[in-house]
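Hey, does this match?
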Amino acid sequence: MTSRRALWILIAAGTVARLVAFLLRPSLHPDEIFQYLEPAWRMLGHDGIVTWEWRDGIRSWFLPTLFVGPVALGDWLAPGGAGAFIVPRLVAAVASLSIVISAWFFGARVSRMHAIVAALVAAIWFELVYFAPHTLSEPLATALIVPAALLLTGGPSQKRLVIGGGLLALAFVWRFQYAPAMAVFALGACWRQWRNAIPLVVGGLVVLLLAAMVDVAHGVVPFEWLILNIKENLQHERASEFGVEPAIAYLHFLWTIWSGATVLLLLALWSGWRHAPLLIVAAVANLALHSSIEHKEYRFIFLSVALLIIAAALGTADWSQMMREKPAWRAWALPVVVGGWVLISLGLAGAKPMQDFWTLGTGEARLAAELRADPELCGAALYITHFTLLPGRERLVGGSPLYALHPQDPVAEGHLPALAKKHEPAFNRILAPLDSASDLPADFSRRSCTSDGIACIFARGGGCDAAAAGPFAINDVLVRLNR
């Protein structure tokens, strides 16, 4: 089998794995909708939910602007909101294949066996597959940084330096928190030849200029979002409002998810160090930065996971070569290593806590689809149920008005049952937790719920009078809640 054919087979394997993850349609985090797809939807002239990040101007418009095309294409292919959600996820999944291709060429610098093992692991490793179809800045930036790392290592040419610098700059705009890891690759390219910094910087400046033009096109000061983001999260500690973890939390996350395979991975990294030391250094730098930030989510260190897995794969290819030196193991060397990776990946993917992640949010998405398809819907209210559980305004209610009755809303003052009764002429559907059924007006009856009862559809007959809504339109409520 030729090397090119082997690479295409591994790309196909990665595509199939990512298609499976896409079809499961888990919802990893509300950000993938409300920070990227919902703004892109609004850019097309539609109504949408506006979160505090966009009101306070701490997000770059670059990524949502890039999503406008896929969102528009999806809505044209499948009107009604679902297509606008599906096509961008497919684009993200395809973009993640850059990690598979880059892993192949990292390995090819050593041997064909290293290329096969590295690319196969990048294609099937459960975390890389799980994150692939999510429209989040972490996996999308990683899909740029890994090929940039390939271009900037191994004696880069002027052309590779320019392209690598551009990729790093684009990744910075998408996920500036990955800057320390990017700096490792930039410094590695210039450490012995500082003249390499010129084409590297030129490539980066071209992309940063483009990003500044996108900011200006949206009527904001170029890169003001970066300053405001740092100010909100460092000075005002806004991110800490969403949870705080100790410095060792990420090590605990890795140990919990990788379980007993952690020991094997560490041994593989020991072997892989000589082939790709900068991958490991960058992974550690990224892990160290995020460990120093109080608010922690596993997706934040996705870059570290990807880099460590590729380096570990290169290390296990060394083991395969050692096995080939023994005549009795020659034919089994590659199948044993590859089979080991596949079995470990499948085992960890089906174990706790990953087991529950594969269907995360699917119940809420089905409930939203049912509500969206309801021909009698003329207005809907979220009762206690937070909007982040649901897949965007259009996919929830289409063109119908959306309201929110939240216990922390200062206008509500804790009198939610009375408010629901007073304003019910404005809506004929309510989304509420099952245990809140007794708070709702008597003419609303339960239709369907998620399996855990966290959200249910309650319906009444008749039409809607938007004039009766009062101050409870969803975006007005979010302003008062500062969410």
